[in-house]
Every structure is written in structure tokens, then in C-alpha cells.
Design goal:
The protein is of the alpha+beta class and 330 residues long. The strands form two sheets. It has a five-stranded mixed beta sheet, with helices on one face. Strands 1-2 form a two-stranded antiparallel sheet. Helix 5 runs antiparallel to helix 6 and helix 5 runs antiparallel to helix 9. The longest helix is centred in the last third of the chain and has 33 residues. The mean pLDDT is 89.
């Protein structure tokens, strides 16, 4: 399944808006992400998933139920063309079929699914493979947003029958009822919620066949462009990841990608990044992994990542994360 390596600043902007009235400054929320407050003014700016998750981690330290709160704010319109294509679908079931058809456009961290089991339709989120410490947060945000999308599509709250979560019952479990007004089960085998399957046949209040076909055509085109670019970016990332100790320069990397350095620069720019930023991101990800292993001294990590001196690595890590490697490890 193809997930997006790059995303918009939408979630980051929502987090800063959520904490706007609190004494914590944007610097605290953006610390270690490499995102500047000035970046939020650009609608074209793209960031990596690593950057987004760093801001989420900073905010989660300030509010435990952050995932639920963000999910309750992520309406179907937050998903762009795909959201509007779903809104104009004929039935609730058609809308869900469309949403699941374009996971890359949803920008989710999960594999989403909808299965009919007897008289119930179960919407589930599985196969999370990102920062493990943020799994519960992402589950809460994902399912709360999907429930809100259901309500937006139908123009009324969908009646939930049950909701299941694989994590333990949190201290703020009472706040789940704002999104999931139904029996809750924690320590379950899946992350999912259920509603009567008959609701899949409901006609949507904003159904419009002409608008739907136009939006659908745009989604197909956008999906082709998106998946092609993401697959190409994945090849670039793999080429750099396999040679972090001696990373190829821009020209050598361009040769591996069978294009000119100018074309490589242009493609990376269109994806909202550039060579050094991509290399730094991969080094940062690898550095955090190695710092979690006590048998890797700082000098060896620096060498593994292609730094000639430990001091250079320490300076770079301080710039990436806002803290020294030794403090991060501690």
C-alpha cells in the first residue's frame, strides 16, 4: 500500500490553532520539526511525515487526548478533491468505496477497510508502521475523523453500534463519547467502529452525478500524478538510505535516477523538498534509531551517517532536533 511521504501543513496548522490561547509558544510545538512559523502562510508548502509526527509528539506532551480533539475537527472537506467527490456520491456506500479506492489521497497512516459482518458495517484502521509511541494518538485521530466524515456525508450523525480499540483504556476515556456514542471496548483485537449496514444504501443529501463525475476525473488524474511522484521519491530515498555513510552527490544521484541534475532538482522541488533536506531527513531518522541502541557510541553513529567528525554530527543533530544527541539518548 502506498502511503504519502510528504503531506500538507494542515494538521500542523490545526495543532497551532488548538493551542493558540495557551501560554506555550509555536516554538515549543514546532521544536525539532524543522518547520518555521512563517511556513504556515504558504498553501503550497509540503512537509515530511517525520516533521508532522514531531509536531504531534510535542503537542501530545501538552494534551493527552489530542488525537480525539484533532479528529473531531477534520471534516470531509479537509481531504480536498477526494472529500468533495465523496460528498457528491450517490449513496453512503458509494462514498466509502471511493474513499477506500484512493488511500494515497487520504494521506492516512493506516490501511483502511470497510467490511459488512452480518447486519453491521465495520470501518477499521490497521497496519500502522510509524512512530510506535504515537500509535494510540494516530488511531484516535483517524477513527474520530472517519466518524466525522460519516456524519458530514450523511448530513446527520451515523448511529454507531460499537467501537473497538486495541490500546488500553486511557484516563480520558470519557472523552471518547463525543465521537463514539456507543459501547466502547479497549484492549480489543482491532481498531474499528460499527454502524448498521443498511445505512450504506442511504442516498446522500449532496449527491450530484455531474459534480461527482467531474470530481472523480480530477481525483483519478491527481492520484496518477501523486502515486508516480511518490514512487519516484521512494526510489530516491532508497538510493540515499543505502549509502548514508558515503552519500552520492547530486550528480551521482541523478545518474542513478537516469536523469540530469537539473531534472532531479526540479522533481524534488515539485515534491516540496531538495537534496540536502532529504539527506538530512534520512540521517535524522537513522540517527534517532541508533541513539536508541546503547551499544552505539556517538562517534560510531557519526561515522555511520557520513560525518567526518563527531562534532559535526552533534551540531547537525542539534539543528535537526533542537537537543544534543546525548540529551536525546538520555
Amino acid at each position: 500500500m502506498l502511503h504519502a511521504h510528504l503531506t500538507t501543513l494542515h494538521v500542523v496548522s490545526m495543532i497551532l490553532e488548538l493551542f493558540a490561547e495557551r501560554p506555550e509558544s509555536s516554538e515549543v510545538l514546532l521544536a525539532g520539526s524543522g518547520i518555521q512559523a512563517s511556513d504556515l502562510a504558504s498553501g503550497e508548502q509540503r512537509i515530511t511525515r517525520t516533521q508532522e509526527l514531531q509536531v504531534c509528539a510535542n503537542a501530545l506532551a501538552l494534551r493527552a487526548d489530542l488525537g480525539l480533539e484533532l479528529g473531531r475537527r477534520m471534516h470531509v472537506s479537509a481531504y480536498g478533491l477526494l472529500g468533495y467527490a465523496a460528498l457528491s456520491s450517490a449513496t453512503f456506500g458509494d462514498a466509502w468505496q471511493l474513499l477506500l479506492q484512493y488511500p494515497a489521497l487520504l494521506g492516512t497512516y493506516f490501511k483502511l477497510d470497510l467490511q459488512v459482518e452480518g447486519e453491521l458495517a465495520w470501518v477499521s484502521a490497521a497496519e500502522y508502521r510509524h512512530a510506535s509511541a504515537l500509535e494510540q494518538f494516530n488511531v484516535e485521530m483517524c477513527l474520530a475523523s472517519l466518524k466525522l466524515i460519516c456524519d458530514d456525508l450523511l448530513g446527520q450523525p451515523v448511529p454507531l453500534v460499537a467501537a473497538q480499540f486495541s490500546h488500553a483504556r486511557p484516563a480520558y476515556a470519557k472523552r471518547y463519547t463525543a465521537s463514539f456514542a456507543c459501547p466502547l471496548q479497549f484492549d480489543a483485537v482491532r481498531n474499528a467502529f460499527a454502524f448498521p449496514a443498511e445505512w450504506l444504501q442511504r442516498r446522500l443529501p449532496l449527491a450530484d452525478p455531474v459534480t461527482h463525475q467531474e470530481m472523480l476525473a480530477r481525483c483519478r488524474k491527481l492520484n496518477v500524478e501523486f502515486t508516480t511522484r511518490q514512487a519516484w521519491l521512494q526510489r530516491v530515498r532508497e538510493a540515499l538510505t543505502s549509502h548514508l555513510a558515503e552519500p552520492p552527490g547530486l550528480e551521482a544521484l541523478a545518474q542513478q535516477m537516469h536523469c540530469s541534475p537539473r531534472t532531479l532538482r526540479r522533481h524534488l522541488q515539485e515534491l516540496g523538498t531538495h537534496y540536502q533536506e532529504l539527506l538530512d531527513e534520512l540521517r535524522f531518522e537513522r540517527a534517532k534509531t541508533l541513539l536508541g541502541q546503547e551499544d552505539w557510541p556517538i562517534c560510531r553513529i557519526a561515522e555511520e551517517l557520513g560525518f567526518s567528525e563527531s562534532a559535526s554530527f552533534r551540531h547537525a543533530f542539534q539543528r535537526w532536533s533542537g537537543v544534543a544527541p546525548s540529551r536525546f539518548r538520555a
